[in-house]
Amino acid sequence: MKPPTDTLAPPTENPVAGIDQSSGNFRYDVKYELDAGTGLSDRTVDYISAAKKEAPWIREFRQKALQTFLAKPLPTHWATRDLENINFDKIRYYLSSGQKPKRTWDEVPDDIKQTFERLGIPEQERKFLAGVEAQFDSEAAYSNIKEIVSKQGVIFVNSTEGLREHPEIFKKWFGKVIPTSDNKFSALNSAVFSGGSFIYVPPGVKVAQPLQAYFRINAENFGQFERTLIIADEGAEVTYMEGCTAPKFSTSTLHSAVVELVALKGAKIQYITVQNWSPNVFNLVTKRGLAHEEAEIKWIDCNIGSRLTMKYPGVILKGRKARGEVLSIALANDGQHQDTGAKMIHAADETTSNIIAKSISVGQGRSTYRGTVHIPKHLKGCKNNTECDALLINTNSRTDTYPAITVRGDRHAVQHEASVSKVSEDQIFYMQQRGLTEGQAMSLSVNGFINDLARQFPMEYSVELKRLIDLEMEGSVG
């Protein structure tokens, strides 16, 4: 096994947080047993399906999705210039070391295990998680759930195992919340998906500790296309957290996931994301939940890093008194565009949705809020609250807000609020007079700006979020 390859200069300590500035920026030279090569064709799709030993209906599903992807043009109404930089013919769509997911960390191959140990995943599992899945490039290297949770009937496996071992549950909802034809990148994922989580929580079961997945891109010119499906049966409750990192390369990397959530009557699903992609990653993700009667789906989303992120978690409020919520934090640094937002589709009476989005633009970074709220005329008693707050750090920073709120009928309550502010020079000067450096003062201001949302994260993730923001603020003043 070759030693890890750090793609930057030797790590430096962050004077604000006192942590390694390049904690996620390393890679290992891994020997892959399965490699679909570069480019996307019928042969690529067949290779992936054969490597995973899939049923004929899945192979057919993939091939139809490929034709849909090829037929759909790139989105032309926003972020077009960035998307045109993606060369689909140079991407590697499937890489795997060939092993099945291990149930103990000792069984994981050394090079992959050391990657996740360096990121602190085993330690987090021991401290506060009910189960962990760790995906390395295309496949899960580790997947485990605590015995006390599995005895409750909870299923937590990767999507490949879910399709193979639980088809009666998986197939019922697979592709139903997000159809293949939803957009070009959901079609791409449907053609080449690999990895991701499958979770089923039986009726009335409340999973006390979070389940977590960690997605790691290690290879250059790689595309990661995990597919996640979470089903909470009637009265069930579950919290799922995902973390994402990748090393820096000079070439582009593509991450295009599809996440489908199904909350049946009275169920609650909370989905938490903290991503820290390197600035060469195109992060183009489709996430949507379906909330039945009196169910609740809550997305807590933190987007840091990447060259371009396009992500708009949504909830279809299908049942009476269903509730949907999106809490979003986005930080765009130099050369980055965070195009994020939320979609709330009210489809039943007395449904409630809440969107709170905060963005920070640093240097020449650009943040965009893009949201949709739809309440049709025949419904009654629906409520929506939308808040979009932006913070500009420098004079060249940019922020845009595009809320699309469509309300018909006269029995609804809807409110929208937006604000744009800039860090006050007087405030920074005041803090410097009390012993803080300029960078520390800036970090304190930014963390204060997002503090009310950061408190919604579990403690471990809240601390990590603030550390990541501290890192991003280094050298941002001027």
Keywords:
single chain; 478 residues; alpha/beta; twelve-stranded mixed β-sheet; ten-stranded mixed β-sheet; 12 helices; 24% helix; globular
Description:
The protein is built from twelve helices and 26 strands. It is α/β, with parallel strands linked by helices and 478 residues long. Strand 5 (131-136) and strand 6 (139-145) form a beta hairpin. 51% of the residues are buried. Mean pLDDT is 82; it is low at 1-28 and 125-129.
Topology:
Blueprint: E1 5-6, E2 26-27, E3 34-35, H1 42-51, H2 56-71, H3 80-83, E4 95-96, H4 110-118, H5 121-128, E5 131-136, E6 139-145, H6 147-150, E7 155-158, H7 159-165, H8 167-173, H9 184-192, E8 197-201, E9 211-216, E10 223-224, E11 227-232, E12 237-245, E13 253-255, E14 258-263, E15 268-277, E16 281-291, E17 296-305, E18 308-311, E19 314-317, E20 323-332, E21 337-346, E22 352-361, E23 366-375, E24 383-392, E25 398-407, E26 413-422, H10 425-432, H11 438-454, H12 459-473
Helix pairs in contact: 1-2, 2-9, 10-11, 11-12
Q: How much helix, percentage-wise, in residues?
A: 10-25%
**What kind of assembly state do the chains in view correspond to?**
single chain
Give the biggest sheet: 12 strands, mixed
Number of domains: 1
Poorly predicted regions are 1-28, 125-129
How far is the N terminus from the C terminus? 44 Å
How does the overall form come out from the CA principal axes?
A: globular
Percentage of residues in DSSP E strands? 35-45%
Structural class: alpha/beta
Number of helices: 12
Rg, Cα atoms, Å: 22 Å
What is the arithmetic mean of pLDDT?
Answer: 82
